[in-house]
Amino acid sequence: MPDFVGSYDQYFTVLRADTRERRDDAYRLRYQVYCIENQFEDRGRCRDGREFDDDDDRSVHTLLVHRRSSAAVGTARLILPRPDALRPLPIQEILWPRERMIFERLPLHRTAEVSRFAVSKEFRRRCGEERFPDVGFSDRRPDPAASERRLLPHITLGLLRGILGICLEYEISILAAVMEPALLRVLCRLGLDFVPLGPLVEHHGRRQPCVAPIAELIRGSRDRAGPLWRYVEADLSAMAAVPAIAARAGMPAEPGHPPLSSARGFP
User: Fold this and answer.
1) pTM
2) I want to staple 221 with a disulfide (CB 3.0 to 4.6 A). Which of 60, 73, 140, 191 is the partner?
3) What is the dihedral of CA 255, 261, 263, 266, to 10 degrees?
4) Cβ distance 115 to 51 under 8 Å?
5) Residue closest to 245 by CA, chosen among 262, 230, 229
6) For residue 83, which of 112, 116, 63 has the smallest C-alpha distance?
7) Helical H runs in 129-242?
8) Contact at 8 Å (CB) between 161 and 232?
């Protein structure tokens, strides 16, 4: 097996969109994907070719940048909880009443929603690949240009690494999402199993509301020992600072910080 992490980092880097310039890069990529390529959002409401909404003021954004061109090729955001401000997460607005009641039994102060998961069409479609291509990895050792092309299906991993880093920093223990079934299948192959909340809903097409404890996503990826685990393993040294996640993932917590009994949060 080639050095996946070294190869990936040679061509792509994951950045926190924590400046106005980087957030603008994320908003412009979202405009391209959500307004031009797919027409999920009304381009008429977007200013200067940027797509953003009312949830961006409580979100942390990640960017995947292609090193050779310096182009932002992927972005995602994590909408942080604001239960004290009576601002529900967007997923709560589209759940059926029964599933909404189940969701509200989660530890909402540690529950965040990943959304605006967008990848540039130029990089997403390689040789007729689908929106969320397979995540297989070749054992061959091709030339650099071919190696870069073979890493393109793994763009999703970079965004997942960015989201995981945000979750660890903000002590998020439950991740919510409204995803395309195709993306859920890709994540499942990576060992990331989300729990469906009710039936499919109409939201930018047919989507599945779902949730998952961060610790179980980490454990599932670790048990598969796949490319995602090899890619994020170095980041998980920070887990000792998040006792609830560390305990649920079977890793030692930092001394003096007992694990929270509600780490999983599911009824």
Assistant:
1) 0.79
2) 191
3) 170
4) no
5) 262
6) 112
7) 144-151, 155-169, 181-189, 214-224, 227-232
8) yes
